[in-house]
Amino acid sequence: MELEGAIKSYDWGKLGAQSKVATLAKANNLSFNIDNENCYAELWMGDHVSGPSIVSGTDQSLDQLLAKDKELIGGMSKLPFLLKVLSIGKALSIQVHPSKSEAEKLFASRPDLYKDPNHKPELAIALTPFLALCGFRPYEEIYTNLKENEPLYVLIGAENVEQIKVNGPDGLRHCFSLLMHSKDSDVHSCIAKLNESFQTKEPTTDRRIFHQLNEQFPNDVGSLCLFFLNVIELQPGQAIFLPAKEPHAYLSGDCIECMACSDNVVRAGLTPKYKDVETLLAMLNYDGSSGESKIFQPKVVDEHQLLFAPAVEDFAVVKIQVSTKKYRIKNSKFGSIIIVLAGKASANAQNLEPVALKEGKICFVPATSSYIDVDVTEDLVAYQAMYNDFS
Hints:
The chain is an alpha+beta fold. The chain has helices at residues 20-28, 62-68, 100-109, 139-148, 150-156, 158-167, 169-180, 184-198, 205-216, 222-225, 277-283; strands at residues 2-4, 6-8, 14-15, 39-40, 42-45, 54-55, 81-88, 94-96, 122-126, 130-136, 229-234, 239-242, 248-260, 266-269, 299-302, 305-308, 316-322, 326-330, 336-349, 355-357, 362-365, 371-386. The protein contains eleven helices and 22 strands. α4 packs antiparallel against α6 (158-167).
């Protein structure tokens, strides 16, 4: 079943044809016109109420179709995952996602801000060089960062910074809370002094990113969060997994993203949107660990498939890369969604009409089909999202 994804335009997206989201949307639907003055940020593929996909050639959305026939998703009430493509030209917010129990409480108490009761673990697989902040750095590294950047050391207080060295997570919790509760005037002063001091110092990765964030969000406390969080530079094909409670922010690049079917985000910096600082501070994981430990390693299924299956049941992603040959792709017993990034092939799913695959093509493969046979005529690259029944 061919789909058209929901296109989301946010100011952090890439402009016009520079956006992978826009070029894939155009390849999928030739009647779609790219506006080079518009920022195309996300392409949603799934049945989430905030952006359900449309079944091609109909006026029916995927959520409407699945509500009528649960057999298409193996008896589930809805798809447990949401697949996306992201094109990031400007930093996303410093944020965290709640656990399932926290999401239920937030939804019950503030449904205007937190739109559903589900958790939102997510996986990002880089399509281009991809820059992100992810998780707290090792305690010693944070301590050193604060000591070496005197304006930040003064802002938080010497006696408080020393607690990171002595008390690890409790010391970090205290210092990060002090940072996030700092007066705007003190944050502005700290940023100005850091900016001045960096003019005469070697342009390290941290300093380069500090300038980038401060240009995008002047005088925002999120620029100072940089010195607490790991900088992750993914190359195409590398991935990070973000469980509940993990602080993070995507900074630039294009990626495939898959998550539990939710849109719950708690923000605290680098955003014009509502900042729920107290909620974020209360739910963060304050464990410090290296950036290298955040890289998610896929499992090699065979020479044509890599399996990204994190420790959550909601989703798994398979990267499919097949040169000119016939190949069988397994489907999940709860259905799956496939997006084609490159190549050409004919796809024959069990019990369904053949579909021509090419760049931008999005297909929902119902649970009633246990496999998809592809006859590849031009090197095929695709991603398949499904329920995680691999554990």
